[in-house]
Structure formats: C-alpha cells, structure tokens
Design goal:
heterodimer; A: 282 residues; alpha/beta; 8-stranded mixed β-sheet; two-stranded antiparallel sheet; globular; B: 113 residues; mainly alpha; 66% helix
Chain lengths: 282, 113
C-alpha cells in the first residue's frame, strides 16, 4: 500500500516567479527561506510522487462545464501553458507523471462516490507551475496534478473539500504500490484576482487562518472558516484555500507556519506551511 | 456572497475568453479585429464596448468572470515582466477608485512603497 510521507501547502501567486523582485527584500528573503525549507523537508521525506492540489484558473475547462475536480493522468506534464509562460516569467518545464496512480484516483474515487474528471494532457497555469518551480525544479519527483474549482458557482464549501480530502487520503493509501506520496495544497491566502479589490490582501484573516493551522484546530477551522468568510477576505482567490483543506484532512496536529507575508506586490497574502503528522484513515 | 459569484457563466464573453487564451490566431487578431471576434462569439454590443473601453467595472457588472478581466487587459497591454502592472492598475483605479486607493495605502504601510 502507498504511504503518505509529507503534507505541505503554499501560495502559488504568479508574482512569486513573474515579478518576484517587486516585493520588499524582506518578503523575498522570507519566501526563498520558506520554500527552501519545504524543499529540504521533501527531500528528507523521499517521496516518489507529489500529488498537488490547485484550482484551475479556467484554463483547462470552458466556463460552460467546470468539474469540481480534475486529475492529470498523463505520463508527463509540460507547463506553463503558452498563455502563462510570459506572465509567470518561466521557461517551459517537464515533469514525469504517474499515470497509474492518477488513473487509480479517478477510478477508486468513483467507487467511493466522488467524481473526478481527468485530462491526459493537462495545461498548467500558476497553480501548479509556481510550486513546481520552487519545490520540484528538476522534475525529480513524479507529479499527479489535481485541479479543482473554487471560482465558478456553485463554489464548493470547506466542509466539502475536507470530506473529499478524507476520501482521497484513503484512496491514496489504498493504492496497490509501495509509493511514498507527498500531498501539497497550493493557492491562497487572501486575495481577489481580478475583482474590485484586486490590489489588496486581508492580513487579519490570513494570520487568523494560519494560527488555527498552527494549533491544529480542525474543528474551529471547519466551523468558522466558512466560504462566506473566505469570500469576504478576497473573493475568488481566498477560496483557493480549499486546496489546503484537502490536505488538512489528511493530517493531524499542528502545522509549522514557515512564513507569512501580506504581499500586495505579489497580489496575494503569501504563506507556506508543513505538517508533521498524518490522520489515521480507514 | 463575494464578487466572483456575480459572474454569469452563460455570458458569451466568458466562453470567448477560453478560446482566445488558447488560440494564437485569435490573440493576434485582438488588437486589429476585436469587433469581428466579438461578432463571431455572439457578444452583445455592451460586452464589446466594455472590452473595447477596458472597463473592469462594466465588465463585471455584465457578468464577466473576474479572472478574465485582467486577462482582457493583458490582451491589450501584454504580459512580459508583468508589464501590464501600471496599465492594469490605471484601469482599476478608474473603475474602482475607493478599493484601489485603500489597497495602495495598505501596501505603502506594509511594504513602504
């Protein structure tokens, strides 16, 4: 059976690669330090594959038909998509996929009443590309990307994401292989991409959210970090934290908050966390 | 609920943007034949004019998904090295003066610039 060996989350704002130096030197130093620490922990955990959760920014599906979740099942992943490489200031990258595990997630998810769409050739925006740049720059770890919807109504709730996370945790562990799996949520923290408050972050919300993660307080997070509260802290962007809720469901105990920067210059509350323990499953 | 839930997924502009982002030929026509592209995708006159005028507020009032608003601006101003930062900011300042001024003041306080 496969084993969970690392759980982490980080912001994927395009500013982290596209216009990194527009933020203060202090923020740059913190972001580089935190992502280096994430990389160090990943290397120590020796995963065979990274299962990365991120919202799709309306890149892979037209708005007339947006699945809640989509798994990239290709044997290789290539990004960023043409529309995004200039924006992200990134060269094209190639990362080996894990088709067998990805297809298992789709099929085993269906058996457990969860619908996963899939794509053999998934396209990548900042959601997968920015964390890949920092955590898996040489494609050393295989990748299973899982896209999600958090911006096209109806937007799933945190409770729903947490539930999906618990099922996925069991699905990953049920995989008939000896793979060591790292799960990584990407997105958030507070921001409002393209909305009236495009150039704004909600530091108070971000610090409150991270403090609850640092306490490992899943009950309060699920009770108080509602979709409404996330939308109030930045519509259409803060709810990217649903990817963090997916990972949260696979963990237990406190998360280490590695950095937090209310970085308006990167147009997002920017944070990095890593968990130390995993939830027991079925 | 938040701004993003004001979007109208059935609005032709929202469908059009999916194809424009993927198709270099459509992107190449953006600056020279926007009206033709708008006609092909069945945009209303109001949608076309809000795009032409680069007006984030009117676009969102019509139901354009907020993701697509800066992307529409990128089609006019380009994306290299975030070169649309000041151009996009100017559009948002005009459309949402209060929100943008609050954000700029916050940034000045947090980052000293």
């Amino acid at each position: 059976m496969a084993e969970l060996v690392a759980a982490m989350a980080m912001t994927h704002s395009p500013g982290l690669t596209g216009w990194f130096t527009r933020a203060s030197e202090e923020y740059q130093r913190q972001a580089l330090g935190a992502t280096a620490e994430m990389r160090r922990r990943l290397e120590a955990a020796r995963p065979d594959v990274l299962v990365m959760f991120s919202n799709d920014h309306l890149l892979n599906w037209s708005i007339n038909n947006v699945p809640e979740y989509t798994v990239g099942i290709g044997e290789e992943h290539v990004g960023p998509a043409d529309w995004f490489d200039e924006w992200l200031g990134m060269e094209k990258y190639r990362v080996p996929g894990h088709s067998a595990l990805a297809r298992f997630i789709v099929n085993e998810g269906a058996r457990r009443r969860l619908a996963f769409a899939y794509l053999r050739a998934m396209q990548f925006d900042d959601g997968i590309s920015v964390p890949t740049h920092y955590l898996n720059p040489n494609g050393r770890f295989r990748l299973v990307p899982v896209g999600m919807n958090c911006t096209v109504p109806p937007i799933p709730t945190p409770e729903r994401a947490y539930h999906v996370g618990t099922v996925l945790r069991d699905v990953l562990r049920a995989y008939p292989g000896t793979e060591r799996v790292a799960v990584i949520g990407t997105g958030g923290l507070s921001h409002e991409p393209g909305g009236p408050r495009y150039f704004w972050v909600d530091e108070e919300f971000d610090r409150w959210f991270l403090e609850l993660l640092a306490k490992g307080d899943h009950v309060t997070l699920l009770r108080e970090c509602t979709l409404e509260r996330m939308e109030a802290a930045g519509s259409g962007g803060t709810a990217e934290l649903l990817a963090w809720f997916l990972v949260l469901a696979m963990t237990r105990g406190p998360a280490d908050v590695l950095a937090y920067m209310p970085a308006i210059a990167w147009r997002s509350g920017t944070g990095m966390v890593a968990w130390n323990e995993f939830a027991q499953g079925a | 609920m938040g701004n993003v839930e004001r979007c109208d997924p059935t609005l032709p502009t929202n469908e059009m943007m999916y194809y424009v982002r993927r198709d270099p030929a459509l992107r190449a026509r953006w600056l020279t034949d926007l009206e033709g592209i708008a006609r092909e995708f069945g945009l209303s006159r109001a949608e076309y004019e809000a795009i032409r005028d680069k007006d984030p507020k009117r676009l969102m009032d019509l139901g354009v998904h907020q993701y697509y608003v800066p992307q529409i601006l990128r089609l006019f101003f380009g994306a290299a090295q975030n070169s649309n930062a000041s151009a996009a900011l100017e559009c948002y300042k005009r459309a949402f003066p209060e929100e943008t001024a609050t954000a700029m003041a916050l940034q000045a306080r947090l980052e000293g610039g």
